[in-house]
From TrEMBL:
<feature type="transmembrane region" description="Helical">
    <location>
        <begin position="495"/>
        <end position="516"/>
    </location>
</feature>
<feature type="transmembrane region" description="Helical">
    <location>
        <begin position="374"/>
        <end position="396"/>
    </location>
</feature>
<dbReference type="GO" id="GO:0022857">
    <property type="term" value="F:transmembrane transporter activity"/>
</dbReference>
<keyword id="KW-0813">Transport</keyword>
<dbReference type="InterPro" id="IPR020846">
    <property type="entry name" value="MFS_dom"/>
</dbReference>
<feature type="transmembrane region" description="Helical">
    <location>
        <begin position="408"/>
        <end position="425"/>
    </location>
</feature>
<dbReference type="GO" id="GO:0016020">
    <property type="term" value="C:membrane"/>
</dbReference>
<keyword id="KW-0472">Membrane</keyword>
<feature type="transmembrane region" description="Helical">
    <location>
        <begin position="437"/>
        <end position="454"/>
    </location>
</feature>
<protein>
    <submittedName>
        <fullName>High-affinity inorganic phosphate transporter and low-affinity manganese transporter</fullName>
    </submittedName>
</protein>
<feature type="transmembrane region" description="Helical">
    <location>
        <begin position="330"/>
        <end position="354"/>
    </location>
</feature>
<dbReference type="InterPro" id="IPR036259">
    <property type="entry name" value="MFS_trans_sf"/>
</dbReference>
<feature type="transmembrane region" description="Helical">
    <location>
        <begin position="123"/>
        <end position="139"/>
    </location>
</feature>
<feature type="transmembrane region" description="Helical">
    <location>
        <begin position="466"/>
        <end position="489"/>
    </location>
</feature>
<dbReference type="Pfam" id="PF07690">
    <property type="entry name" value="MFS_1"/>
</dbReference>
<feature type="domain" description="Major facilitator superfamily (MFS) profile">
    <location>
        <begin position="53"/>
        <end position="520"/>
    </location>
</feature>
<keyword id="KW-0812">Transmembrane</keyword>
């Protein structure tokens, strides 16, 4: 049966007219359930390629990047203020706030990630950052630990939904020639991390208690200022998304939900505004036929929890619809699990390990936030290099080759493993700054490429569900990091660090086994 499906896929690819302007074939292997939808998305891809890159795409690149930035700002602000919140509210010991934050991110990935395949990309894209900022303001104003955790959870919930949609929205609009920009979007991680580090550096050292002994609110305003300023930045980004960019629903989602006329209107709007050619017509889409109606049958209950669960079941079948998709989906999910636990464990545990070995990376807040700012700023350039590696052709011994996405991920994983192992030799603040910058740089090469690769290898109807599950797995695995930090810190063992490096190295093997190379194909 598998050979029969492969033959059908090859026949479909041969039958699709790529047109003279198309330099890539569509990744039709992920749409084996619906040949009609694959053909319609092929026409949408041709139309987007025909229009080319416009200011619309440039603006979309920036506002989608806001989502990456907000995700990192939220996580780092929460981590930076946790100790000082505990000082004021009499909480110490196991890092409960970290686990509650992770739970919020997990729930957000599930709810918004799965939901965007029902209600659309636009609603989630516009509402997630706005909700993040509103709940963030409330979190900064709380006077009890319980209410603080509630609003922190809600803010993380909205932020988690945002991470599941940003890259998908940009990917479904961008011309295939510029798909490498999907990877470069991750540069906004470094931007967000740098912003949060600067905010923390400005307020924590100057407006915080030195310990829990005497820590009333009026002497410990730094953590509140961090929440307020960070939330204000997120609120501004949300307003830009809603009132300046005014995003339209993605044409690929529209054709996947049998709304061909709406898809044409979105494309015509861009073509007219930027004076670009558009030869695709509604008749062209309708002549392809009618798409598979299983999705709509699962959505007969409207927008409800029952409809969500029904749609998730249908979408999961799409993610595992053939042997090649089973292999691809499992490897992607496993990669997200490995990077989730290894990156988070490194982030939480490394300084405990260094201190246990007699090192001093700078115990004062000044050195802590200085080094964090330097490292996160350097991390901005990792995804930029990743995007360049994907598109650059190298000549070695008179033979040309290109790393493409898989090669770039392998390079990022192996380089990160080497740097992480070397990090265990750090004993001084300057060495910490240097190795920290190198770690963020190389990890972001892998992380940014994986983030872009993930939605590219999922079918259109189930893209939000696939990305949502990936984020869910990443967050679940990452939630174990504080546990490792708590118990590993008591023993002073070096095992977690070496396991971390080993897992990151294993990511290169998982990448090599992945069946799809989106650099050679257009996303569907």
């Amino acid at each position: 049966m598998d050979y029969e499906k492969q033959a059908v896929i090859r026949e479909r690819e041969d039958s699709l007219d790529t047109g003279s302007d198309s330099f890539l074939q569509d990744n039709t292997a992920v749409e084996t359930n619906d040949a009609i939808l694959a053909k319609k998305i092929h026409l949408i891809n041709n139309a987007i390629d025909e229009m080319g890159f416009t200011w619309y795409h440039a603006k979309l690149f920036c506002i989608a990047g806001f989502g990456y930035s907000v995700d990192c700002q939220m996580e780092m602000i929460q981590s930076a203020v946790r100790t000082y919140v505990g000082y004021q509210m009499g909480v110490n010991g196991f890092p409960i706030a970290n686990e509650i934050f992770s739970a919020g991110m997990i729930c957000g990935c599930v709810f918004f990630g799965f939901g965007c395949d029902i209600i659309g990309r636009k609603i989630v894209f516009n509402s997630s950052i706005l909700l993040t900022s509103i709940f963030g303001f409330f979190a900064g104003g709380m006077s009890s630990y319980a209410t603080y955790c509630i609003f922190m959870f809600l803010s993380a919930f909205a932020s988690g939904g945002n991470t599941a949609i940003d890259v998908s929205v940009f990917m479904e609009f961008v011309p295939s020639k510029y798909q490498y920009l999907n990877t470069m979007l991750a540069l906004f991680w470094g931007v967000g991390q740098t912003i949060s580090a600067l905010i923390s550096w400005a307020f924590i050292p100057n407006f915080s208690c030195e310990g829990p002994e005497n820590c009333p609110s009026h002497l410990n305003r730094g953590w509140r200022y961090c929440w307020y300023v960070n939330s204000a930045i997120c609120f501004l980004a949300a307003l830009i998304r809603i009132f300046v960019m005014k995003l339209d629903e993605t044409p690929k989602f529209l054709v996947a939900t049998d709304r061909d006329a709406d898809a044409i209107r979105v494309l015509e709007k861009i073509a007219v505004k930027y004076n670009r050619p558009l030869s695709l017509t509604l008749e062209d889409l309708e002549s392809c036929g009618t798409i598979n109606k299983d999705f709509f049958d699962s959505n007969k209950d409207g927008y409800s929890i029952r409809a969500l669960m029904s749609a998730v079941k249908v979408n999961l079948r799409l993610l595992f619809q053939s042997r090649v998709m089973i292999r691809s989906t499992l490897l992607v999910f496993l990669s997200w699990g490995f990077i989730g636990i290894s990156y988070s464990t490194f982030y939480y545990f490394l300084y405990v390990f260094i201190a246990a070995r007699g090192g001093d990376t700078g115990s004062s807040p000044y050195y802590v936030y200085r080094n964090a700012t330097i490292a996160n700023f350097v991390g901005i350039f990792g995804p930029i290099l990743a995007g360049l590696l994907i598109m650059t052709r190298f000549n070695v011994f008179n033979r040309e080759f290109c790393l493409k996405r898989k090669g770039t991920m392998i390079f990022g994983a192996l380089a990160s493993m080497a740097i992480l192992f070397g990090y265990t030799t750090v004993r001084t603040p300057n060495a910490d700054a240097g190795f920290g910058a190198a770690t963020y740089f190389f990890v972001n090469i892998y992380y940014g490429t994986l983030y872009a690769y993930t939605p590219e290898v999922f079918p259109t109807k189930a893209r939000g569900t696939g990305v949502g599950f990936s984020m869910l797995i990443c967050r679940i695995f990452g939630a174990f990091a504080p546990v490792i930090n708590y118990f590993g810190g008591k023993t002073g063992t070096s095992v977690p660090i070496w396991v971390c490096g080993g897992l990151i190295g294993c990511l290169s093997i998982l990448t090599a086994l992945m069946p799809f190379e989106p650099s050679l194909q257009r996303s569907v």
